[in-house]
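To assess whether ligand presence alters the predicted conformation, the chain was also submitted together with dihydroflavine-adenine dinucleotide. Input:
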Amino acid sequence: MSLVNALIVKITQLMPKSFVRIFAGKYIAGEELQDAVNLVLNLNSKGILATIDVLGESIKNKDEAIAAKRKCLEVLEAIEMNKLKANLSIKPTQMGLAIDEDFAYQQILEIVQKAKSFNNFVRIDMEDSPYTDSTILVYKKLHEKIGHAGLALQAYLKRTINDVNQLNKLGTNYRLCKGIYIESESIAYKDRQKIRDNYLQSLKLMLKNGNYVGIATHDDYLIDKSYKMIKEMNIPTDKFEFQMLLGVKEDLAQKINSDGYKVRIYVPFGKDWYAYSTRRLKENPQIAGYVFKNIFSFGK
Ligand code: FDA
């Protein structure tokens, strides 16, 4: 952690909640489902798609996991009712994966069944490495039983190429991201360029097999290389989309959209925004740099 980032993390934790809310607000639709609906309607009016995420990943018991599942079901209903061009993203630990794997699977299955009934789709986020195997297993079971679900993989993990080789055999709808958690050097690349190289190698393998890929990055280098790869491999536009986080590089999202490619924005909402923002800061102090920039570009 750089000294500046470490300092910003400390300062942010000492800031009044109302102040943190000002800059966290850029990355979060709001506290209520209706906030997310309004935001997505606005994105859709610009031709941009969305994936909605209910904030709050660490639950303490099954009751909390059941409450989180209900929220996800409400999101799917709201998408259907408002005819949003959006799907749902979920975090397996929020569904109880850390407490009871089978219980979490049943919860996620219920969500995906609901999504299927609306002909919609659920993206399973990938969390930190203790949950990689169990998350992949949940995805495989869903894929076999019902479909309508896709999986996120992280390019910083050394195992990812192997996972892609396995998951390609099933035909998988992927989201490929760099990965946001702090992982040990024994399992994860730390070097920026090595992560990028693994990203591109994984992407090529995913696309080569005709899978659908959500190319989730704000890195100009990766976006540029992805454009080239898509052209060289002659990949049809219905086989991929670009994905970005709400509030990050919005101009770039617009540009990709006007280049004729699908763009999907990850739209988190919920009352857990404070815990989410500060936890994210602790997990990955690099974000502190972005937050810092954001504070000083506030109002511009
Ligand atoms: P990089 O971090 O190099 O960022 C490139 C540039 O983008 C930066 O220089 C900066 O300008 C800007 N930028 C990036 N992030 C920013 C931020 N938060 N605020 C302001 N500016 C920012 N991770 C994970 O482990 N599991 C998951 O399931 C997901 N899901 C997911 C979905 C979507 C749609 C996205 C876009 C990302 C994720 N991630 C994720 C997070 C991902 O792993 C990664 O941490 C971030 O996207 C940052 O990586 P980049 O590829 O953007 O590169």
